[in-house]
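Recap from last week: sequence in, structure out.
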Amino acid sequence: MIFNNSCNVFEQIANNYIKMIESGAIKNGEYLPSCRDLAKNLGINPNTVQKAYTLLEEKGYVTKVLKKGVYVSYNKINNPLNDFKLEVKKYKDDGYKKEELFEVINEVFGE
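Predicted structure tokens:
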């Protein structure tokens, strides 16, 4: 990545990721590099990458998961079921069993 003086470095990083996400080069659900790894690769401060990831999260392109990382959560069509699917994936990644999640869903629906 070549940085220019047109805007802040963190904005350039975020804009680059936005282009890759919107083009499909980076798919929904994929994890982004850690702040430390990306900063090292780009030769910049990790705080700059953190700012870029925060901006991406504010714009709805990624979701930060504590102790897991940052992953793409962008949907061209704002479909609540896509958001639900990503949430379920997080619970699965955290070790919850399918039956436990079904139990919660059944409880919500009163079944």
